[in-house]
User: Fold this.
Amino acid sequence: MMTKLTANDGHAESELHAEAWAGDVDGVARVLDSGFDVNWQDSIGETALFGAVAWAENAVVVLLLARGAQVSVQNNEGWSPLHWAASHGGVDMIDLLVAHGADAHLADHAGAKAIDIARRYGKGDRVARLKMLMGKRSRS
Assistant:
């Protein structure tokens, strides 16, 4: 029987994290259907959405967002899922997160935005997309 965690009690990760990181859409749905909190944060402040984004599990990301995952949640370092998409994901993941309300201007605790992370990791396609998205928001 799965233990229902509703707040971080020092656990490194949850069953939801494991299913999301594995890209198991059915497993994620099963855990969420059992009443598990989609926004539960692990010991470093990351929700299952972080892992799904980092491993480019688009179908899992879509499911988590549909079930209420907070798109601009920040971990203990201030990184959001968009920061992870900038470093490990792709342009399609960036577009998906921004379409669901991710803030491209959100900075981590060191002041780095997702675009800065993309530059740091030499991800030119992501830099270009984030620059375009940030410009759109500035003009709105």
About this structure: Residues 2 and 116 are 39 Å apart (CA to CA). DSSP finds eight helices and no strands in the chain. The two ends are 49 Å apart (CA to CA). Residues 1-9 have pLDDT under 50 and may be disordered.
